[in-house]
Amino acid sequence: MVEFETLKSEEKNFGKNNFLEIARKIAKSEEGENEFVQIARGFFAPDGSRRYKKSIAVPDEAEIKDFITQKIKEV
Hints:
The protein is an alpha+beta fold. It has one helix spanning 62-74, and strands at 3-14, 18-29, 32-44, 50-59. It has one domain: Nuclear Transport Factor 2, Chain: A (Roll).
């Protein structure tokens, strides 16, 4: 069984009812721990709760994070 722990999370609202969330998380299992960065897109339901549509997890490696940052700015 894998347990997830959120270490830090930042959110940016956009549009009428949407948000982007960037979070640093740890996946813990019997085999060990794995730290990663998750980027998620979601929306707020009528009752105010947060619903997630899509997400991507990337390794917590400087080279990968730098690549993503650079390419987003270039696109």
